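can u do me a favor
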Protein backbone atom coordinates (compact mmCIF):
# COMPACT_ATOMS: atom_id res chain seq x y z
CA UNK A 1 0.00 0.00 0.00
CA UNK A 2 1.49 3.32 -1.08
CA UNK A 3 1.87 6.09 1.46
CA UNK A 4 0.53 9.61 0.97
CA UNK A 5 4.10 10.89 0.64
CA UNK A 6 5.06 8.46 -2.13
CA UNK A 7 1.81 9.22 -3.96
CA UNK A 8 2.51 12.93 -3.56
CA UNK A 9 6.08 12.69 -4.84
CA UNK A 10 5.87 10.14 -7.64
CA UNK A 11 2.34 10.39 -8.96
CA UNK A 12 0.68 13.67 -8.14
CA UNK A 13 3.31 16.36 -8.60
CA UNK A 14 6.29 14.67 -10.23
CA UNK A 15 9.45 16.78 -10.37
CA UNK A 16 7.73 19.64 -8.54
CA UNK A 17 6.98 17.36 -5.61
CA UNK A 18 10.56 16.10 -5.41
CA UNK A 19 12.01 19.62 -5.58
CA UNK A 20 9.73 20.96 -2.87
CA UNK A 21 10.42 18.03 -0.57
CA UNK A 22 14.17 18.68 -0.98
CA UNK A 23 13.61 22.39 -0.29
CA UNK A 24 11.63 21.49 2.80
CA UNK A 25 14.43 19.22 4.09
CA UNK A 26 17.07 21.88 3.42
CA UNK A 27 14.95 24.49 5.18
CA UNK A 28 14.59 22.23 8.20
CA UNK A 29 18.37 21.87 8.22
CA UNK A 30 18.70 25.67 8.19
CA UNK A 31 16.24 25.93 11.07
CA UNK A 32 18.25 23.43 13.11
CA UNK A 33 21.50 25.28 12.35
CA UNK A 34 20.07 28.65 13.37
CA UNK A 35 18.55 27.16 16.51
CA UNK A 36 21.81 25.57 17.63
CA UNK A 37 23.65 28.81 16.93
CA UNK A 38 21.10 30.76 18.95
CA UNK A 39 20.96 28.38 21.91
CA UNK A 40 24.76 28.34 22.21
CA UNK A 41 24.88 32.13 21.85
CA UNK A 42 27.53 31.90 19.13
CA UNK A 43 28.45 35.10 17.25
CA UNK A 44 27.35 34.80 13.67
CA UNK A 45 30.51 36.27 12.14
CA UNK A 46 32.54 33.38 13.53
CA UNK A 47 30.36 30.77 11.82
CA UNK A 48 32.11 30.44 8.45
CA UNK A 49 30.70 26.95 7.96
CA UNK A 50 27.18 28.32 8.23
CA UNK A 51 27.91 30.83 5.46
CA UNK A 52 28.97 28.01 3.15
CA UNK A 53 25.95 25.90 4.03
CA UNK A 54 23.54 28.76 3.41
CA UNK A 55 25.28 29.60 0.13
CA UNK A 56 24.77 26.07 -1.21
CA UNK A 57 21.18 25.91 0.01
CA UNK A 58 20.31 29.28 -1.53
CA UNK A 59 21.99 28.16 -4.75
CA UNK A 60 19.67 25.15 -4.85
CA UNK A 61 16.68 27.42 -4.20
CA UNK A 62 17.66 29.55 -7.21
CA UNK A 63 18.18 26.40 -9.29
CA UNK A 64 14.68 25.26 -8.30
CA UNK A 65 13.22 28.59 -9.40
CA UNK A 66 14.99 28.49 -12.78
CA UNK A 67 14.01 24.86 -13.42
CA UNK A 68 10.37 25.42 -12.54
CA UNK A 69 10.39 28.54 -14.72
CA UNK A 70 11.51 26.57 -17.78
CA UNK A 71 9.09 23.72 -17.01
CA UNK A 72 6.17 26.09 -16.64
CA UNK A 73 3.77 26.38 -19.57
CA UNK A 74 2.91 29.97 -18.62
CA UNK A 75 6.34 31.44 -18.02
CA UNK A 76 5.24 35.06 -17.70
CA UNK A 77 2.58 34.14 -15.16
CA UNK A 78 5.06 32.01 -13.22
CA UNK A 79 7.62 34.81 -13.18
CA UNK A 80 5.04 37.32 -12.00
CA UNK A 81 3.69 35.10 -9.21
CA UNK A 82 7.02 33.60 -8.03
CA UNK A 83 9.47 36.45 -8.48
CA UNK A 84 9.39 37.27 -4.77
CA UNK A 85 10.63 33.75 -4.01
CA UNK A 86 13.61 34.30 -6.27
CA UNK A 87 14.38 37.47 -4.33
CA UNK A 88 14.29 35.72 -0.96
CA UNK A 89 16.45 32.88 -2.30
CA UNK A 90 19.43 35.15 -2.93
CA UNK A 91 22.24 34.57 -0.35
CA UNK A 92 22.41 38.17 0.84
CA UNK A 93 24.70 37.46 3.79
CA UNK A 94 27.29 35.82 1.54
CA UNK A 95 27.15 38.77 -0.84
CA UNK A 96 27.52 41.30 1.97
CA UNK A 97 30.36 39.28 3.49
CA UNK A 98 32.18 39.07 0.15
CA UNK A 99 32.02 42.84 -0.38
CA UNK A 100 32.68 43.50 3.34
CA UNK A 101 29.43 45.37 3.85
CA UNK A 102 29.06 46.11 7.56
CA UNK A 103 25.78 45.58 9.38
CA UNK A 104 24.90 45.35 13.02
CA UNK A 105 24.71 41.83 14.50
CA UNK A 106 20.94 42.23 14.92
CA UNK A 107 20.38 42.97 11.22
CA UNK A 108 22.61 40.07 10.20
CA UNK A 109 20.61 37.82 12.47
CA UNK A 110 17.40 38.85 10.72
CA UNK A 111 18.98 38.28 7.30
CA UNK A 112 19.61 34.66 8.20
CA UNK A 113 15.86 34.07 8.25
CA UNK A 114 15.26 35.24 4.68
CA UNK A 115 15.88 31.82 3.04
CA UNK A 116 13.51 30.26 5.57
CA UNK A 117 10.62 32.20 4.02
CA UNK A 118 11.22 30.13 0.91
CA UNK A 119 11.25 27.03 3.09
CA UNK A 120 7.99 28.10 4.71
CA UNK A 121 6.45 28.44 1.26
CA UNK A 122 7.59 24.93 0.38
CA UNK A 123 6.27 23.66 3.70
CA UNK A 124 2.85 25.15 3.00
CA UNK A 125 2.80 23.52 -0.45
CA UNK A 126 3.79 20.11 0.91
CA UNK A 127 1.24 20.29 3.71
CA UNK A 128 -1.45 21.35 1.27
CA UNK A 129 -0.68 18.53 -1.17
CA UNK A 130 -0.56 15.89 1.56
CA UNK A 131 -3.95 17.00 2.93
CA UNK A 132 -6.60 15.73 0.57
CA UNK A 133 -9.49 17.42 2.37
CA UNK A 134 -9.64 21.15 1.61
CA UNK A 135 -10.70 22.16 5.11
CA UNK A 136 -8.06 19.94 6.66
CA UNK A 137 -5.44 21.30 4.25
CA UNK A 138 -6.29 24.90 5.15
CA UNK A 139 -6.29 24.15 8.87
CA UNK A 140 -3.01 22.21 8.78
CA UNK A 141 -1.28 24.86 6.66
CA UNK A 142 -2.34 27.69 8.96
CA UNK A 143 -1.40 25.71 12.08
CA UNK A 144 2.03 24.90 10.63
CA UNK A 145 2.71 28.50 9.68
CA UNK A 146 1.46 29.74 13.06
CA UNK A 147 3.80 27.42 14.98
CA UNK A 148 6.70 28.33 12.69
CA UNK A 149 6.06 32.04 13.23
CA UNK A 150 5.88 31.60 16.99
CA UNK A 151 9.14 29.63 17.00
CA UNK A 152 11.10 32.13 14.88
CA UNK A 153 9.68 35.03 16.87
CA UNK A 154 10.81 33.40 20.10
CA UNK A 155 14.33 32.95 18.69
CA UNK A 156 14.54 36.59 17.63
CA UNK A 157 13.04 37.77 20.92
CA UNK A 158 15.57 35.70 22.87
CA UNK A 159 18.56 37.04 20.93
CA UNK A 160 17.48 40.65 21.32
CA UNK A 161 16.14 40.57 24.86
CA UNK A 162 18.14 38.12 26.96
CA UNK A 163 21.14 40.47 27.34
CA UNK A 164 19.09 43.52 28.34
CA UNK A 165 15.91 42.05 29.80
CA UNK A 166 16.20 40.30 33.19
CA UNK A 167 12.85 38.62 32.54
CA UNK A 168 14.39 36.58 29.69
CA UNK A 169 17.26 34.61 31.27
CA UNK A 170 16.89 31.62 28.91
CA UNK A 171 15.14 30.52 25.73
CA UNK A 172 12.31 28.80 27.61
CA UNK A 173 11.08 32.17 28.85
CA UNK A 174 11.18 33.57 25.31
CA UNK A 175 9.16 30.62 24.00
CA UNK A 176 6.64 31.08 26.83
CA UNK A 177 6.37 34.78 25.91
CA UNK A 178 5.72 33.96 22.25
CA UNK A 179 2.98 31.39 22.92
CA UNK A 180 1.19 33.56 25.45
CA UNK A 181 1.47 36.62 23.21
CA UNK A 182 0.04 34.88 20.14
CA UNK A 183 -2.97 33.75 22.18
CA UNK A 184 -3.47 37.45 23.11
CA UNK A 185 -3.57 36.41 26.80
CA UNK A 186 -0.20 37.97 27.53
CA UNK A 187 2.40 37.05 30.13
CA UNK A 188 4.46 38.64 32.86
CA UNK A 189 7.31 39.11 30.35
CA UNK A 190 7.32 42.43 28.53
CA UNK A 191 9.63 43.60 25.77
CA UNK A 192 12.40 46.13 26.38
CA UNK A 193 13.84 46.57 22.89
CA UNK A 194 12.02 48.24 20.01
CA UNK A 195 12.07 45.06 17.90
CA UNK A 196 10.70 43.05 20.81
CA UNK A 197 7.80 45.48 21.17
CA UNK A 198 7.07 45.27 17.44
CA UNK A 199 7.09 41.46 17.65
CA UNK A 200 4.64 41.64 20.57
CA UNK A 201 2.17 43.61 18.48
CA UNK A 202 2.62 41.43 15.39
CA UNK A 203 2.15 38.16 17.28
CA UNK A 204 -0.99 39.43 18.98
CA UNK A 205 -2.41 40.57 15.63
CA UNK A 206 -1.50 37.23 14.07
CA UNK A 207 -3.27 35.36 16.84
CA UNK A 208 -6.45 37.43 16.43
CA UNK A 209 -6.45 36.70 12.69
CA UNK A 210 -5.63 32.99 12.79
CA UNK A 211 -7.46 31.58 15.82
CA UNK A 212 -10.93 32.19 14.29
CA UNK A 213 -9.85 29.79 11.55
CA UNK A 214 -9.60 27.05 14.16
CA UNK A 215 -13.18 27.79 15.26
CA UNK A 216 -14.40 27.58 11.67
CA UNK A 217 -12.54 24.29 11.19
CA UNK A 218 -14.06 22.71 14.31
CA UNK A 219 -17.50 23.96 13.31
CA UNK A 220 -17.14 22.40 9.86
CA UNK A 221 -16.14 19.08 11.47
CA UNK A 222 -19.22 19.12 13.72
CA UNK A 223 -21.50 19.99 10.79
CA UNK A 224 -19.98 17.23 8.68
CA UNK A 225 -20.41 14.71 11.51
CA UNK A 226 -24.06 15.71 11.96
CA UNK A 227 -24.67 15.46 8.21
CA UNK A 228 -23.07 12.00 8.05
CA UNK A 229 -25.17 10.86 11.01
CA UNK A 230 -28.34 12.18 9.38
CA UNK A 231 -27.52 10.43 6.10
CA UNK A 232 -26.77 7.19 7.96
CA UNK A 233 -30.08 7.30 9.84
CA UNK A 234 -31.94 8.12 6.64
CA UNK A 235 -30.25 5.25 4.81
CA UNK A 236 -31.02 2.86 7.68
CA UNK A 237 -34.67 3.95 7.66
CA UNK A 238 -34.94 3.52 3.88
CA UNK A 239 -33.40 0.04 4.11
CA UNK A 240 -35.89 -0.93 6.83
CA UNK A 241 -38.82 0.28 4.75
CA UNK A 242 -37.51 -1.56 1.68
CA UNK A 243 -37.03 -4.74 3.68
CA UNK A 244 -40.59 -4.49 5.08
CA UNK A 245 -42.08 -3.99 1.64
CA UNK A 246 -40.11 -6.95 0.28
CA UNK A 247 -41.38 -9.20 3.08
CA UNK A 248 -44.96 -8.05 2.50
CA UNK A 249 -44.67 -8.72 -1.22
CA UNK A 250 -43.34 -12.24 -0.64
CA UNK A 251 -46.20 -12.94 1.80
CA UNK A 252 -48.79 -11.81 -0.74
CA UNK A 253 -47.32 -13.91 -3.54
CA UNK A 254 -46.92 -16.99 -1.34
CA UNK A 255 -50.16 -17.28 0.75
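np, heres the sequence
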Amino acid sequence: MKSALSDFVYEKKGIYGILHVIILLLSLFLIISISIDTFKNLPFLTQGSYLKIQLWICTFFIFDFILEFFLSHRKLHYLRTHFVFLIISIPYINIFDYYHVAFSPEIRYFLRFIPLIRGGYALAIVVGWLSYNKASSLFTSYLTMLLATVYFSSLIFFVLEHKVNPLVPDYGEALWWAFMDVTTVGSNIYAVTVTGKVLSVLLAALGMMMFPIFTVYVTSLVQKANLDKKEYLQQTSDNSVSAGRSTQTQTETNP
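The first helix runs from residue 4 to 12. hope that helps!!
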